[in-house]
Design a protein that fits this description.
The protein has 616 residues and is of the alpha+beta class. The chain contains 20 helices and 26 strands.
Length: 616
């Protein structure tokens, strides 16, 4: 009996030790998590630095965009979604800030649990979190949302959440996501970006169909009215459940936000000065340099202008090839056509010299590759010797340049001809390059007249090479359809980048996305080296390693000549009717419009006195 009691005691002590060890290892719930290190705002903070907690509620902000819309469901491939619906109506499990590279703070979720190896993440939902019909947000809603987006949502979601093995509600207020891999540092954070939809609202409805019925959300605004394709009006939810949370304190101040749609950019531009809308972010250098200061409201001080420097990666805006097309499958051809784009001359003619040439897929950031590879980056690239261009190791990547006179293009065209000849293209009897009996012809697809003046000289230079390029400008709906179905030869496209690149790179460059309609791999890249680098990227253990991998990816992308880089500007150009208040501190990585601005009735009254025709 003594021995049995002793054995039982040993067993009990062992069990207690085991349970204690398990308790020590169990991740503690946290109100926020960061990609690396700790979040900026710790428990007890009152509000983010770039929001004014005393901002007045009320008034209206009138915005405008080019294009149209035919659905209020922003989560599916079908249709053109109305602008801002996702952000206005739907809340995510967590939210980020505009003054940190990549951190997430509890929103629908109050706390977050995550083990050291980040092989899973759990979110504990707030008791007060509810949809705008008063029903509580539950773990079942979150799981239903995830499964529905994966099964019926836009292909982006399937790519973004590809490494999620299981989503489960472990209690009515706790949801857990288990991953198919460990040490993917970004996955727990991007799971927090999941917008939560109401399961009970969608019962009996077809999720992947276009709809103009305003879906039930849980956000700071609801849809007030819709004029299909022309206007959408949002109204503030005054009893919004999250309004007093520190992470959103001082935000979402306008009672009404109206967004008008314009089919024509010229009309959209002029409508701003007529007072049809309040805020404009300018993207055309010619307009900014030559048009604004001549307008009466600007001269009279009714419209304010500002150029705001930012620290965001500008990514890659470029002429993007569709390398599924036989004519563009030879890298020498892709490189050759780049010599026909005279950026320096075009920048002088069309942008008053204000743009800088893009030299990286991670432009305007520390992730952009420069010089020759060294250190950790070189170690990474050496693993792929023989599988990537040899020039990666021996030459700094540069783009063709000219003196901007319009005459310097001749030498560049000579180099282009040499490359095209090496690739087997020869001038035929018609004066057009031919190979295997096929003439060198292709189409440049766009949906904005603003690019035409840049593209036409490029087409003229291509003609001198014996290449026939035609410009096709189509409406937004047709453009989106053709891009999603890879029905184009070349287009103007922007590949945006975040401060912390990760899983979304699969959708940009992953081989398994090249044939998925609606994916962002519009180029059609199938490169095993890039696939491997993306895998390394999502598992990077710290910021230093992430930057080195981005440098390596940058070089592989650049030296394969998948695009002809265009230009960027490391600042925002904004103009607005002077009837708003703005926080004293601007966010480092965003504009904060309309989230942190507010309506100033006194300023608006002054505008009404000076410009009574201005809509209030």
């Amino acid at each position: 009996m003594h021995m049995l009691r002793q054995a039982a005691l040993v067993l009990a002590l062992t069990l207690i030790s085991f349970l204690a060890a398990q308790a020590e290892e169990a991740p503690q719930p946290k109100p926020s998590i960061a990609m690396y290190g700790e979040t900026k705002y710790q428990p007890g903070f009152a509000h983010v630095d770039y929001a004014n907690p005393e901002a007045r509620k009320g008034g209206e902000m009138h915005l405008a965009e080019e294009g149209t819309f035919d659905t209020l469901n922003p989560f599916v491939l079908k249709g053109l979604a109305a602008p801002a619906v996702a952000g206005m109506l739907f809340q995510t499990l967590t939210t980020g800030t505009e003054d940190e590279p990549f951190s997430r703070y509890g929103l629908v979720a109050e706390t977050i649990e995550m083990p050291e190896d980040r092989s899973w993440v759990a979110f504990n939902l707030r008791k007060e979190a509810k949809f705008n019909d008063g029903t509580p947000i539950t773990a079942d809603d979150v799981v239903w949302t995830f499964n529905t987006l994966m099964e019926k949502g836009h292909p982006f979601f399937k790519a973004y959440y590809a490494k999620v093995a299981k989503a489960e509600a472990t209690s009515p207020s706790r949801v857990k996501f288990t991953f198919s891999m460990a040490n993917n540092r970004e996955l727990p954070l991007i799971m927090g970006e999941l917008p939560v939809m109401s399961k009970h609202y969608w019962e009996g409805k077809t999720f992947d169909a276009s709809t103009l019925e305003a879906p039930l959300g849980s956000g700071p605004y609801r849809v007030k009215s819709v004029d299909q394709g022309r206007r959408i009006t949002f109204e503030r939810v005054k009893d919004w459940w999250a309004k007093d949370l520190p992470i959103v304190k001082g935000m979402y101040n306008f009672d009404t936000i109206v967004i008008d749609m314009y089919r024509d950019e010229t009309v959209l531009f002029q409508a701003f000065f007529s007072g049809e809308y309040d805020f404009r972010q300018e993207n055309v250098a010619k307009n900014w340099a030559a048009e604004y200061d001549e307008k009466k409201p600007v001269k009279e001080g009714l419209i304010k202008k500002a150029e705001i420097k930012h620290s965001l990666p500008t990514g890659m805006q470029a002429f993007a090839y569709n390398i599924r097309k036989p004519v563009f499958q030879d890298p020498r051809v892709r490189e050759a056509l780049g010599y026909a784009f005279d950026f320096e001359w075009s920048n002088k003619q069309f942008a008053y010299g204000t743009y800088a040439r893009t030299h990286s897929y991670f432009e305007n950031s520390d992730m952009a590759a420069t010089g020759l590879p060294t250190g950790k980056e070189l170690e990474i690239l050496q693993q792929y010797k023989g599988k990537i261009p040899d020039e990666v190791f021996t030459k700094e990547f540069t783009l063709p340049t000219t003196d901007g006179s319009g005459n310097g293009i001749r030498d560049n065209l000579a180099k282009a001809k040499e490359l095209l000849t090496q690739a087997g293209w020869k001038i035929g009897s018609s004066g057009v390059l031919e190979k295997d009996g096929q003439p060198f012809k292709f189409e440049i697809l766009i949906d904005s007249p603003a690019f035409e003046r840049w593209i036409l000289p490029f087409i003229g230079n291509l003609k001198k090479l014996g290449v026939v390029a035609n410009l096709r400008n189509v409406d937004t709906a047709q453009y989106q359809h053709r891009i999603e179905n890879f029905d184009f030869d070349m287009t103007v496209h922007s590949f945006g980048q975040s401060l912390s690149p990760g899983n979304e790179q699969r959708d940009y460059w992953g081989s398994d996305k090249a044939d998925v309609h609606g994916s962002r791999n519009i180029i059609g890249i199938k490169n095993p080296v890039l696939d491997d680098l993306i895998q390394k990227l999502v598992s990077a253990k710290d910021r230093e390693e992430l930057v080195a991998i981005c440098h390596a990816m940058d070089r592989v992308l650049l030296w394969n000549y998948y695009v002809i880089p265009q230009w960027y500007h490391p600042a925002w150009w904004i103009a607005y009717w002077d009837k708003f208040g703005r926080p004293e501190t601007a966010p480092k990585y965003g504009l904060g419009v309309p989230e942190t601005w507010w309506y100033d009735a006194q300023k608006a009254a002054k505008i009404a006195e000076k410009a009574p025709e201005k809509k209030q």
